[in-house]
């Protein structure tokens, strides 16, 4: 039996993170925004709880091949992905799970020169190896390249772009952030990025999309375009995908080790600010040892406002061990200096990431296996998307038969 649905109306939510989703997601929605589609299904924090989705659900999400995954990516996205796939597989005939590698999206930051192709190819391989290392099982989830699905993502992208209002896209937060007021960075690909993201989701007729707090605006656009397409062509082709909220619990918002006021990010340019899932034990210990904390060195407790650095380290431990914060605070209660405290934190991270490092070392050198995973996933994803696009062409009038 499925667990009770944790379905909330965002406008009535009392959870601060869900209020954030509501405010960000609705901020730039046109007056014709989908009605009745702003519900959220929460991934239970208990890793043993059933997946609260119907058996005919389709879960879809993607990751960009932009380099090595760090601890924030792992705890905030990839480990929840593994949890979703495992819970779905535990139910006979359960939800379909599709995870993609967004290699077309990676082109919005184009690499130049003759080495560009080799660089992107290496990043694509690394992305597949990382997904497998982080627990994604190709027997339980379809793993496919965005570019490997017979051009169907981009075909639907064009269909949706013909219905997408320019004003709506111009208000998208990511467009504002990434162009940074620089006309030289105002490229069409970056501007239209959210429409391709909507196509990525709808080409599989996905019903649920795992998100944290910072992708809600894109999912709201997806719902808007799905409803607009259905209304425009007087059909009921696309479901309006729901948020599968994965932002609850500890470890989902990992902060920078050197500046805990900011989230952990590769764009910081500070190698000591983040832990990669492939870091060696020595690298992890060195980074934790240098992590910013505070002057209180004889007690360690969770206080994000007053002690952001210490709280970030405690949050990481709670997230990796999947235990309540009270348990972590009890474990560190006897520590009386930062050497002992940071040593404890480093030990937890090293051991938690050990299987990930070992699997990555194995998969990253087995290109034949990686290719087989991708070939299998691309074929399965293409079969699903091709049938959906056949229905789209029928509705629009692009059937090939005269």
UniProtKB/TrEMBL annotation:
What EC number(s) would the UniProt record show?
6.1.1.2
One BP annotation, GO? mitochondrial tryptophanyl-tRNA aminoacylation
| GO terms assigned for molecular function | ATP binding; tryptophan-tRNA ligase activity
As for subcellular location, the record says: Mitochondrion
CDD domains attached to this UniProt entry: TrpRS_core
Q: Which UniProt keywords apply?
A: Aminoacyl-tRNA synthetase, ATP-binding, Ligase, Nucleotide-binding, Protein biosynthesis
The residues forming a coiled coil are: none
- Principal place where this protein is found? mitochondrion
Q: Which GO terms describe its cellular component?
A: mitochondrial matrix
Q: Which family does it belong to?
A: Belongs to the class-I aminoacyl-tRNA synthetase family.
PANTHER family this protein is in?
TRYPTOPHAN--TRNA LIGASE, MITOCHONDRIAL
Q: What name is this protein filed under?
A: tryptophan--tRNA ligase
Upper lineage is: Eukaryota, Fungi, Dikarya, Ascomycota, Saccharomycotina
């Amino acid at each position: 039996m499925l667990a009770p649905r944790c379905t909330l109306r965002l406008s009535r939510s009392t959870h601060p993170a869900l209020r954030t989703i509501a405010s960000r997601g609705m901020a730039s929605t046109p007056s014709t925004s989908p009605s009745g589609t702003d519900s959220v299904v929460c991934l239970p924090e208990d890793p043993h709880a059933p997946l609260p989705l119907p058996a005919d659900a389709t879960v879809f999400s993607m990751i960009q091949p932009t380099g090595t995954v760090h601890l924030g990516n792992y705890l905030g996205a990839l480990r929840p992905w593994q949890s979703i796939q495992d819970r779905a597989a535990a139910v006979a005939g359960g939800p379909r799970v599709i995870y993609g590698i967004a290699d077309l999206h990676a082109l919005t930051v184009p690499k130049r020169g003759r080495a560009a192709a080799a660089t992107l190819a290496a990043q694509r391989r690394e992305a597949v190896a990382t997904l497998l290392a982080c627990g994604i099982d190709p027997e339980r989830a379809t793993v496919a390249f965005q570019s490997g699905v017979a051009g169907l993502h981009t075909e639907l992208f064009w269909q949706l772009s013909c219905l997408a209002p320019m004003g709506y896209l111009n208000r998208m937060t990511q467009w504002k952030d990434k162009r940074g007021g620089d006309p030289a960075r105002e490229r069409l690909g970056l501007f239209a990025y959210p429409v391709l993201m909507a196509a990525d989701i709808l080409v599989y007729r996905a019903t649920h999309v795992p998100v944290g707090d910072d992708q809600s605006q894109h999912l709201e656009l997806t719902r808007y375009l799905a409803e607009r397409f259905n209304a425009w062509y007087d059909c009921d082709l696309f479901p309006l995908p729901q948020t599968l909220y994965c932002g609850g619990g500890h470890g989902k918002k990992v902060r920078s080790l050197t500046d805990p006021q900011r989230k952990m990010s590769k764009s910081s340019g500070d190698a000591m600010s983040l832990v990669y899932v492939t870091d060696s034990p020595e690298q992890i210990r060195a980074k934790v040892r240098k992590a910013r904390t505070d002057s209180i060195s004889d007690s360690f407790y969770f206080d994000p406002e007053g002690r952001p650095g210490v709280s970030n380290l405690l949050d990481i431990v709670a997230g990796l061990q999947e235990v309540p914060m009270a348990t972590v605070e009890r474990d560190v209660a006897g520590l009386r200096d930062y050497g002992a405290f940071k040593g404890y934190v480093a030990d937890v991270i090293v051991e938690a990431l050990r299987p990930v490092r070992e699997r990555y070392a194995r998969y990253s050198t087995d290109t034949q296996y990686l290719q087989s995973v991708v070939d299998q996933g691309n074929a399965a994803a293409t079969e699903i998307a091709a049938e959906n696009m056949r229905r789209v062409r029928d509705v629009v009038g692009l059937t090939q038969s005269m």
